[in-house]
């Protein structure tokens, strides 16, 4: 019952439901009785009008104010005038924005003001519209350009080479952070700290002017700088070796975060070209398997494959670091993961005989970006004592060896015949295809297992079918066999029909003879004796 | 052995006035696969310090030795022995003060290969730049010996190398081999003075630029 009455309550005439514009579609009270399409058109029109109206108002206000300003402060210079203009514009923009936002939310109150706005609009003319467009454009720019773009560059000269403002921003944030840390750090060194800071500033200044020099010369400058600062700390300030080490690390961090974008993969060198060559080379060698390199790592073990993934992540991460030492730390981290992987696989600590092939495999698998550039950068700008000695240096040397090996790699070093090697290199065949694992090696273990099981199932299925067909064949054979036997028997029976021969004459003769010459005594008869 | 001049890549640090300077002494281990390079380093490091072994790998070791005149920080760099890495191994030599040329006394071919390593080393170093010790490892396998002690000694003498036979397994003469290198370095004290000269020149050079 109640349902019925409700229905009656909201009942409206069919015509009321149609779009106000009479397009034939149904309207909606939420769209003020228009259909969706008409509403959108109307709304758009109204909005445009509103924007223009606002702009017009702003223009008028500005004009008025300008006039007033010009008359009262005619003595003031042009500078203040432009400034006030700027201020005014700003406030205008603000109010306009606010009203626009308001309009978005108060759509229903628009229809009344429409006509007035239209008239105004006509007066405004072409100029207003253009300005309006300009304004919107600027507005948009303001919205989409990050605030730091508008702010004047506080620190360093903006560089054209930098790919995007966000990266630039990030870099400058990092630079700021590093500077702050550096200054904090130097405070613990008191007087030598000040001296270090001064020297670093001077060095950076000097490097700024040396930007035109070749990268080798710049590298030499940096190396000289490291050596001189270390010497000075030791001899003049009598700083203990450990603290010299620490200071050197910080100095390197400070100056290299600043120099990075000028000296990493500079255009004056062919580093980039070499990067591409190495990258292409590694890509061409995608088919190399751990077995060919004699890598003592079994990726079937989940822990090991985990380590391999971690190692690859580390070596790729190297490119994202700016300080040579941080890059070295990435290589060391990667190496530790490799050692772990080998240790889990072999159950004994890895030796260099195991390590280098595995590192080569990791590099091949990871194809780290800008490998050559990174190596060159580290070689040129890292503290040299760190590269020739120390754990970081050891792993870095191994990485250099790995890259050198990959560049020279040939059939012999993979224990392949030249023909096989050439075929794999040209992509004609892949050694993986020959194995059951023709899916990519980085597919997770579960999926691999699934594929294996599917494979097994299909094999089973095949066998089942074979068995069924064999069984059928056997059945047929059996039937054929019985048929054959029957036929054979019949043939034989036909060939040698069963004849029941008449009684043998001779036998009968004997019998008859016996009958004839019956001279034998009569058979004994049982007799009963009394007694 | 002739006295060696210290290159500038040698890190010299000094602990104030009274304590001894510390030198970093880089040693590379060369030799074929499975001759026991890693085991030698492992044995040496383990016996010197009863500290826990590096949990992960044994291809890089650091060992501090305290001598009368100096502290020596040993750095042992193990290299891959496979033949295919032979051509790239020169990268490891940079800054090395000594090389252990290891062969297996029970395998003749490792001795021959050691001779090839030596030729590589001679390309990169002048004779007095580096201490080379020819080490015949695995003396515990004396019954299967293919390279006689005399053979090794004779070759070492002809090339001006040091020679020793060791066994990493039974810990025979391992520490002695490693100690041979710094013991000869009593002359370091003198060379330290030499070090100052070129460095002070460089300071001047820098100030000019």
Automatic annotation (TrEMBL), chain A:
Residue span, VPS9 domain: 272-415
Keyword list, A-Z: Acetylation, Cytoplasm, Endocytosis, Endosome, Metal-binding, Phosphoprotein, Protein transport, Transport, Ubl conjugation, Ubl conjugation pathway, Zinc, Zinc-finger
Main location: cytoplasm
GO CC terms: cytosol; dendrite; early endosome membrane; endocytic vesicle; nucleolus; recycling endosome
Keyword flag Acetylation: yes
Gene Ontology terms: biological process: dendritic transport; endosomal transport; Kit signaling pathway; mast cell degranulation; mast cell migration; negative regulation of inflammatory response; negative regulation of interleukin-6 production; negative regulation of Kit signaling pathway
Short name of any one Pfam family annotated for the protein: DUF5601
Compositional bias of kind Polar residues: 71-81
Keyword presence, Metal-binding: yes
Subcellular compartments: Cytoplasm; Early endosome; Recycling endosome
SMART domains, per database record: VPS9, ZnF_A20
SUPFAM superfamilies in UniProt: Glucocorticoid receptor-like (DNA-binding domain), VPS9 domain
Segments forming domain A20-type: 13-47
Region (Disordered): 66-85, 512-531
GO molecular function, one term: DNA binding
Protein name according to UniProt: Rab5 GDP/GTP exchange factor
Organism annotation: Crocodylus porosus
Gene name linked to the record: RABGEF1
Automatic annotation (TrEMBL), chain B:
GO-annotated molecular function: G protein activity; GDP binding; GTP binding; metal ion binding
GO CC, alphabetical: apical plasma membrane; basolateral plasma membrane; dendrite cytoplasm; endocytic vesicle; glutamatergic synapse; melanosome; neuronal cell body; postsynapse
GO biological process: anterograde dendritic transport; cilium assembly; endocytic recycling; filopodium assembly; immunoglobulin transcytosis in epithelial cells mediated by polymeric immunoglobulin receptor; melanosome transport; protein transport; regulation of dendrite development
Cofactor(s), names only, from the UniProt record: Mg(2+)
Keyword set includes Hydrolase: yes
Classification via InterPro entries: P-loop_NTPase (IPR027417), Rab_GTPases_membrane_traffic (IPR050209), Small_GTP-bd (IPR005225), Small_GTPase (IPR001806)
Top-level EC class as recorded in UniProt: hydrolase
EC number: 3.6.5.2
Subcellular location: Cell projection, Dendrite; Melanosome; Recycling endosome membrane
Pfam families found in the cross-reference section: Ras
Entry annotated with the keyword Nucleotide-binding: yes
Record keywords: Cell projection, Endosome, GTP-binding, Hydrolase, Lipoprotein, Magnesium, Membrane, Metal-binding, Nucleotide-binding, Phosphoprotein, Prenylation, Protein transport, Transport
Membrane topology: Lipid-anchor
Catalytic activity: GTP + H2O = GDP + phosphate + H(+)
Family: Belongs to the small GTPase superfamily. Rab family.
Protein known as: Ras-related protein Rab-17
Gene that encodes it: RAB17
């Amino acid at each position: 019952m109640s349902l019925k009455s409700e229905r009656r309550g909201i009942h409206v005439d069919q015509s009321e439901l149609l779009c106000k514009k009479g397009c034939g579609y149904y309207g909606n009270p939420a769209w003020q009785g228009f259909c969706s399409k008409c509403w959108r058109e109307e709304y758009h029109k109204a909005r445009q009008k509103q924007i223009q109206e606002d702009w017009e108002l702003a223009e008028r206000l500005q004009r008025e104010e300008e006039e007033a300003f010009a008359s009262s402060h005619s003595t003031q210079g042009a500078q203040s005038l432009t400034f006030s203009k700027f201020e005014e514009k700003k406030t205008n923009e603000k109010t306009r924005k606010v009203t626009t936002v308001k309009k978005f939310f108060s759509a229903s109150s628009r229809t009344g003001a429409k006509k007035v706005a239209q008239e105004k609009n006509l007066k405004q003319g072409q100029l207003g519209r253009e300005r309006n467009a300009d304004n919107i454009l600027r507005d948009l720019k303001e919205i989409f350009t990050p605030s730091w773009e508008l702010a004047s560059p506080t620190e360093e000269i903006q560089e054209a080479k930098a790919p995007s403002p966000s990266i630039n921003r990030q870099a400058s944030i990092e630079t700021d952070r590093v500077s702050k840390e550096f200054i904090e750090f130097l405070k613990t060194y008191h007087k030598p700290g000040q001296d270090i800071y001064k020297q670093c500033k001077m060095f950076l200044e000097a490097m700024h002017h040396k930007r035109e020099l070749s990268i080798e010369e710049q590298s030499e400058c940096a190396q000289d700088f490291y050596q001189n600062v270390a010497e000075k700390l030791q001899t003049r300030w009598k700083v203990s070796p450990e603290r010299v080490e620490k200071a050197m690390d910080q100095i390197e961090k400070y100056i290299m975060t600043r120099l990075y974008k000028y000296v990493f993969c500079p255009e004056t060198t062919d580093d980039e070209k070499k990067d591409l060559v190495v990258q292409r080379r590694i890509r061409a060698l995608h088919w190399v398997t751990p077995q060919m390199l004699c890598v003592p790592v079994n990726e079937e073990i989940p822990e090991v494959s985990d380590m391999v993934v971690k190692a690859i992540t580390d070596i790729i991460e190297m490119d994202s670091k700016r300080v040579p030492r941080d890059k070295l730390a990435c290589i060391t981290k990667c190496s530790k993961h490799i050692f772990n992987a080998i240790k889990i696989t072999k159950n004994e600590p890895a030796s260099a005989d195991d390590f280098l092939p595995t590192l080569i495999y990791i590099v091949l698998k990871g194809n780290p970006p800008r490998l050559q550039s990174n190596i060159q950068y580290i070689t040129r700008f890292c503290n040299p004592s760190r590269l020739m000695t120390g754990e970081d240096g050891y792993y870095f040397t191994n990485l250099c060896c790995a890259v050198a090996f990959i560049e020279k790699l040939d059939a012999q070093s993979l224990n392949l015949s030249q023909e096989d090697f050439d075929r794999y290199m040209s992509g004609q065949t892949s050694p993986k295809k020959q194995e059951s694992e023709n899916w990519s090696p980085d597919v997770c273990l579960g999926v691999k297992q699934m594929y294996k099981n599917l494979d097994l199932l299909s094999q089973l299925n095949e066998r089942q079918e074979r068995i069924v067909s064999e069984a059928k064949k056997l059945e047929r054979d059996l039937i054929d066999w019985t048929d054959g036997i029957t036929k054979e028997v019949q043939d034989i029976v036909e060939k040698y029909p069963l004849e029941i021969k008449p009684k043998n004459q001779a036998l009968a003769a004997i019998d008859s003879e016996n009958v004839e010459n019956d001279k034998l005594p009569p058979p004994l008869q049982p007799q009963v004796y009394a007694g | 052995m002739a006295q060696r001049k210290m290159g500038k890549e040698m890190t010299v640090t000094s602990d104030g006035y009274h304590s001894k300077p510390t030198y970093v002494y880089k040693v590379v281990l060369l030799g074929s696969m499975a001759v026991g390079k890693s085991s030698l380093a492992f044995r040496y490091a383990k016996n010197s310090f009863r500290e826990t072994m590096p949990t992960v790998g044994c291809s890089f070791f650091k060992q501090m030795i305290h001598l009368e005149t100096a502290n020596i920080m040993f750095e042992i760099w193990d290299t891959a022995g496979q033949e295919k890495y032979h051509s790239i191994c020169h990268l490891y030599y940079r800054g090395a003060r000594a090389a252990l040329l290891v062969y297996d006394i029970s395998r003749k071919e490792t001795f021959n290969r050691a001779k090839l390593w030596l030729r590589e080393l001679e390309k990169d170093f002048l004779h007095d730049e580096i201490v080379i010790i020819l080490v015949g490892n695995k003396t515990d396998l004396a019954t299967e010996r293919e390279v006689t002690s005399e053979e090794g000694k004779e070759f070492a003498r002809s090339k001006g190398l040091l020679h020793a036979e060791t066994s990493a397994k039974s810990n025979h003469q391992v520490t002695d081999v490693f100690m041979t290198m710094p013991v000869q370095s009593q002359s370091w004290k003198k060379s330290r003075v030499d070090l100052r000269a070129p460095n002070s020149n460089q300071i001047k050079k820098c100030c000019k630029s």
